[in-house]
Amino acid sequence: MAKDKSTRRPKAETPKGFRDYFGADVTERKAMLDRIAEVYHLYGFDPLETSAVETVEALGKFLPDVDRPNEGVFAWQEDSDWLALRYDLTAPLARVAAQYRNDLPSPYRRYAMGPVWRNEKPGPGRFRQFYQCDADTVGAPSVAADAEICAMLADTLEAVGIPRGDYIIRVNNRKVLNGVMEVAGILDPNDPEKFAAERGIVLRAIDKLDRLGEDGVRALLGAGRKDESGDFTKGAGLSDAQAEVVMLFVNAPSEIQRRLQDVALVEVSSEHLPWDAYEALGASSAAGANSLPNSASVTRNEFTCRYLREIVQQSVTGIEGVDELEMISELLDRQGYDARKVRIDPSVVRGLGYYTGPVFEAELTFEILDEKGRPRQFGSVAGGGRYDDLVKRFTGQAVPATGVSIGVDRLLAALREKRKQAGTERKESGPVIVTVMDRDRMAEYQAMVGELRAAGIRAEVYLGNPKNFGNQLKYADKRNSPVAIIQGGDEAAKGVVQIKDLILGARIASEASLEEWKSQPAQFEAPRADLVAAVRRILEG
Amino acid sequence: MAKDKSTRRPKAETPKGFRDYFGADVTERKAMLDRIAEVYHLYGFDPLETSAVETVEALGKFLPDVDRPNEGVFAWQEDSDWLALRYDLTAPLARVAAQYRNDLPSPYRRYAMGPVWRNEKPGPGRFRQFYQCDADTVGAPSVAADAEICAMLADTLEAVGIPRGDYIIRVNNRKVLNGVMEVAGILDPNDPEKFAAERGIVLRAIDKLDRLGEDGVRALLGAGRKDESGDFTKGAGLSDAQAEVVMLFVNAPSEIQRRLQDVALVEVSSEHLPWDAYEALGASSAAGANSLPNSASVTRNEFTCRYLREIVQQSVTGIEGVDELEMISELLDRQGYDARKVRIDPSVVRGLGYYTGPVFEAELTFEILDEKGRPRQFGSVAGGGRYDDLVKRFTGQAVPATGVSIGVDRLLAALREKRKQAGTERKESGPVIVTVMDRDRMAEYQAMVGELRAAGIRAEVYLGNPKNFGNQLKYADKRNSPVAIIQGGDEAAKGVVQIKDLILGARIASEASLEEWKSQPAQFEAPRADLVAAVRRILEG
């Protein structure tokens, strides 16, 4: 101990990029995850909790070295092993699916919730530990599994409090994009590595449609693009004819929108028509599983699939992709998940480099104000898709898998925003505080909270230094306590307690008229025996 | 990708000392933690979730070096900082209490649940990641805070399913032990460092009473002890008179037991008399807060305190410790937590080196069989105490704190053991499985599970390859499904489904008579429209 005196005091600081969560931040997230787990459970998914630590080898990262230190994971060496904190919940699932392949049911539906860690430069809103919440089906080759994930995602969003019409789940298919690449002549099925660089540029260009507009994307497909600052970005070098194919795909969403309006099937003036209006149009009149849709009864999703089929008709892979999308939309439509909930949308490009089949993205469509006060849509809160190669790394055997990951912090922020907009923000009420007027009567104060707790009322005795009574009320205020109980020697002798209604007290102090002040005393006396009943009356308002 | 071909496949393995939790293991723990959180919440405690990663500095560990690598934590260097995974939930609390000291309410009651990591050699039953569940009160100097923790711990154990009489919370006080050391002449209040080595030996000797017996402890207090193998352990070198003082303390529990029987106050034949018997004795007749207890009305805890007071009466610290224990037992007794739930017990030594005041240990007293089939008590599931120096490391200012940590895995194992003994083990039922007879009718199968889920029934369509129907039933068995639904083309044409009661089926297969077999068919036909009602009838038994 003596030698410690010379050392400096440690800093009391959360490490850079990490956070502490207090009180309601913890309980709100927990409540949301509990609701999500209920939906996942109802769909037959089982929980899985892997350890936070994996071998670097299992995570698929190379050993850290000077040039690429840790590659985005927190890693360290233990004896001969390199260990690391998991950076997502998918890599551990792949390891588990391989490790326990003889014991797990197949298909294996599992959900997982928990923190993941990223060794990235921390910044505003960018943290090095955050929650993910995933559901995946391993071993189901049919796109029925993808459809199920989409339906479950829609149910999940509604279960946590995102109303219909405020979200849309967009679905695309990697195979359709591959078909487009094939037709445009930059993907050779017999030599998948060829034109990889070009495809990379095309993919990044498509993803920038919102920001650069059609002309900007066209420039990047061709020779390249000079931005306002004069910086030049090299293009994919496609010919005009090649670029035209890609642009057909890029423009598909707006073209589909235009054509749907032409045929007056769906008079949508925006991608996000209010739910009621959409419903009134009868846009989703189910075509039925086996009926041949004619143009008068085609659904929006069917229409989109037909349009995409035209673009990729010369590619086997492309047609396969469209077939899959059609199956997904038919399955979903039959269960009531039509284009107002789950929409086939070729504009979804994010994650296409990673996934091998259908991809999904859940977007919240209600508006919020950005930092500059401009309205914008809330945006993406979940994404996923089919990835058939992950388990193969371990076993050499391809295992089909599909799943979704919810951005827990994003979704929680969305729920708070919704409540704020609706004026239904919740400030969790604190415990009833029994104040200490007389230190020797602590047992009696403890008995009071004991009675309150036995009645299910959150309560505590003030356990700081009781000398300054003002501090006790300040404490009650800081805890957002609804009620304070006071019993000094006089009250004890009379067999009564003073009950202070702190909610009413705060309201009276801020807004009440003198008359109200008199008629509704925020503090009153009650017989000691009536303590619980009197407190309950206040809590029940 | 091409170059990967030459590298070997990664091993699909959980890192050494880490575990994966599946299905019911996750939900059972979650259910238990939820119940614990409810009790903590009712007592006014707020949740806190700190990040898994702390600076090594904040954890109070020295920088890893060759001689003491990591000292039991997983640590690594990021830029100039050493980071580490938290090894408990107390060190992060100390950091938080210091970091946010101007914003947090005082006293600050918080609970925390989550994994902690220990860099120890893994072994059977020894893991490097495990759950802890803590509740602490920071900033409450009064022992009323310690009493509250004990009461809350008792409520918690009962809430999760440990019945009264199957647990006991033992309470001791570091100050009483210090008093004993003072009286024995091996603690000088004016020079706390003096005799530190002797005290260490004494503490370790006391902790071995169960194993070594009275003579063994006496030997270790004196010159030393030779064990059966001939190995010699050096003793504390106390004189007979000094050792006698320590032995008075060591023998206190059995002596108290004997005296209580002498005065026929409590006819306890064992430390763990059945709850009912204890109650019938009226041993806990409350003496009242201010009445002077006479020998006829003294409670067991009061008796223990009096006995301890005799031993330490020449030590100011010792008397202070006994006063505190008396206050704790009086507060608890008044609320109904008498010696059958919370017992003052000088035999609690564990953790006394760490804590500065009262210490608690929750022990489960029901019997289990050890590896060799011999009955033994289940043992400790939680421990805690008062530690007034933790925050001081950061701020230089002493802040009183007291709390408890529940060993989550131990408590969960205890609950399972209780259920096993009571024959009420739960095997969680799996989802209803809708089998796939006809791939083209997938939408109809999906509609079935949709209806079941809408009625709150866990259900899924079989999503593996449907060709082999036997595999579908094997899957249902592996999932522990209660019901399978079958609808081929014939059934569809007739508008019916086949409903297979898998629970009944399993029972009939194993034990039914031929008559039962006939009268209770495990598979029956129902109109498609009655699907949900028919399934519900089976599930409700």
Account of the 3D structure:
The structure is a homodimer of 541-residue chains. With 541 residues, chain A is α+β, with helices and mostly antiparallel strands. Chain A has helices spanning 24-42, 56-59, 90-99, 144-160, 174-183, 196-207, 209-221, 240-250, 252-262, 275-281, 300-312, 316-334, 392-395, 408-422, 442-454, 469-478, 489-494, 502-511, 514-519, 531-539; strands spanning 21-22, 46-49, 53-55, 75-78, 81-85, 108-117, 129-138, 167-173, 224-226, 232-234, 342-344, 358-369, 375-386, 401-407, 432-434, 459-461, 483-486, 496-501, 523-527. In chain A, helix 4 packs across helix 12 (316-334), helix 5 (174-183) runs antiparallel to helix 12 (316-334) and helix 9 (252-262) packs across helix 11 (300-312). The model of chain A is unreliable at 1-6, 63-69 and 264-296 (pLDDT under 50). Strand 2 (46-49) of chain A pairs antiparallel with strand 1 (21-22) of chain B, so a sheet runs across the interface. Chains A, B: It comes from Plastorhodobacter daqingensis. Chains A, B: Belongs to the class-II aminoacyl-tRNA synthetase family. Chains A, B: GO terms for molecular function: histidine-tRNA ligase activity. Chains A, B: Homodimer.
